[in-house]
Q: What sequence folds into this?
């Protein structure tokens, strides 16, 4: 990405092993993230040329210190690299590892190859070479599924709970899937797009609320005896969506917020009197990856349906435009 | 309180039973809360004449529907009345009960008598008439102890945890006591007052940090391998104290914030990337009261030491001034 709106596919040098803990991966599939649209739209600076942080592929080379993956393994990795051994990682916050680095900054994955630092603590090998139809789902695990799953866990979705999901993008839809898998009793998807509503229902949404802002909040309260949802997943990152999440949650309830905050200022007093639990941030996808890979391998979940447009990587610019214009929920790029 | 700084002790009509669920209590002791200083200082409006929301005393009259307490019982109650039966109460958030009312607004307790709504769901009777030396501790349970305890629970203080406490007022000190009781391994009190440091140590603080703001944060990091505390109790309610709490907490750590927010705006992006858990608000004291009363009754904790000035209620104005000028941590008023 050269500037907002200007995405070009170019020849660049192949990544090399730099640290002995690195791996170089031949990417099989990658995708465009909602967060890639922030620079695309000029909302945040275009601070790196090589885009992309979601990936699945085959290990092509490894550094001398890599032990957990080997050349030829098919792997999925988180969008943040982590050593998976530090105290923060062991507590389950690999995205905040003391050696954390964003893949997008280190080595964009919308490419033929990518260098992944701390390969042992970042990558998870699949049980074997996956069937082609599993690739989209495994790719989803790299970020949107892991992020939606984290949001649902942070929101304490589970049996007996009513979960509301703010945001009907890929992460919100994955939040619906995760809430359903975690056993939530009722899942309210907030969406005004028929196609996304349909996918939300397929993933387990029991109710759809089309209203937004205070009207959306009123609707959630109406559906929950006036109390608000037990659990709210926030998957947008704007002032409006955060306030919608806070106001839709009952006192003592939990919000998992994973939409990257843009221009959000939370009013302290309202947050105080709301009595909610607030937890979020960049999802520690690595915490959930082994389980998610297994669920996909066993065909118990099908997160890959969230990709509604597939393009060869040469046509990446077209994919950005389709997502920007909301003609696609999420674009998969084949490499 | 007639206006900021103007506290007068006046004759007022005795409170009456209004609802059949009410009780009228003959107050034995009451006190001045840090939050009473906000209107005293003119930071928030003086919106009620009759001040006070902390109380212990003897039940003098009950409405026809009251079952759990009887005339003659010595009782402690929360500063928020609750039915203790609604869904929110049953989840442990009695301060957000669907019938919640602030005692301070309904009927100030810096008085000879107070009317307590929803007596059954608000009051807890002691096992018998308490010895005089237990009165301060039981009074503390009504708010500051219950609030500090909630903060420690919200911050998930417990075995193996390093807990930092922002704020050395009564609630902060009670947070130290609670963290110690909950089994925290290390408790860092942030205080620059020798007397409060001493009391913090008595209550279980293992370390004292005198620095504030970013310097205080740096000190906490220095004491925790650069990671930050697992648990942070915020007991002030200002922008500076909230940011200090957020920055002193490690990713994945927990903040219990109980200082009533004044002028706080939390930057969404910093909160997002901090990866902390944030939970707080008006403490559901009623959740903890039965256990706290028992701990006090069995003389296992001595929260009453937080009162370092005792005055007859006629001299209430003097008590406000002493707390305002930080000559006293907390003032007990005998009735």
A:
């Amino acid at each position: 990405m050269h500037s907002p709106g200007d995405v070009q596919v170019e020849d660049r040098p192949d990544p090399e092993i730099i640290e002995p803990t690195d791996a170089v991966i031949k990417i099989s599939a990658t995708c465009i993230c909602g967060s890639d649209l922030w620079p695309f739209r000029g909302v945040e600076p275009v601070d790196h040329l090589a885009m992309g942080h979601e990936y699945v592929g085959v290990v092509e080379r490894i550094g001398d210190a890599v032990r957990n993956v080997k050349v030829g393994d098919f792997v999925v990795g988180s969008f943040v690299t982590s050593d998976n051994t530090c105290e923060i990682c062991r507590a389950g916050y690999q995205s905040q590892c003391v050696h954390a680095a964003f893949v997008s900054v280190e080595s964009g994955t919308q490419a033929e190859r990518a260098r992944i630092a701390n390969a042992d603590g970042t990558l998870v090998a699949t049980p074997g070479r996956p069937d082609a139809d599993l690739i989209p789902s495994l790719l989803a695990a790299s970020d949107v599924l892991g992020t939606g799953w984290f949001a649902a866990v942070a929101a304490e979705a589970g049996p007996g709970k009513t979960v509301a999901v703010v945001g009907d993008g890929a992460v919100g839809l994955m939040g619906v899937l995760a809430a359903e898998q975690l056993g939530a009793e009722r899942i309210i998807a907030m969406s005004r797009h028929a196609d996304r509503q349909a996918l939300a229902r397929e993933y387990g949404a029991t109710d759809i609320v089309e209203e937004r802002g205070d009207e959306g909040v009123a609707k959630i309260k109406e559906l929950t005896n006036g109390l608000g949802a037990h659990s709210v997943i926030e998957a947008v990152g704007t002032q409006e969506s955060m306030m919608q999440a806070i106001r839709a949650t009952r006192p003592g309830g939990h919000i998992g917020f994973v939409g990257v905050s843009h221009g959000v200022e939370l009013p302290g007093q309202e947050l105080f009197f709301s009595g909610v639990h607030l937890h979020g941030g960049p999802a520690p996808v690595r915490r959930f990856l082994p389980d998610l890979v297994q669920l996909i391998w066993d065909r118990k979940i099908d997160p890959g349906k969230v990709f509604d447009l597939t393009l060869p990587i040469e046509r990446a610019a077209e994919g950005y435009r389709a997502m920007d214009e909301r003609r696609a929920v999420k674009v998969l790029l084949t490499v």
Observations:
- The longest strand of chain A covers residues 23-31.
- The radius of gyration of chain A is 19 Å.
- Chain A touches chain B at residues 87-88, 91-93, 95-96, 98, 225-227, 237, 239, 242, 250-252, 257, 260-269, 271-282, 284 (CB under 8 Å).
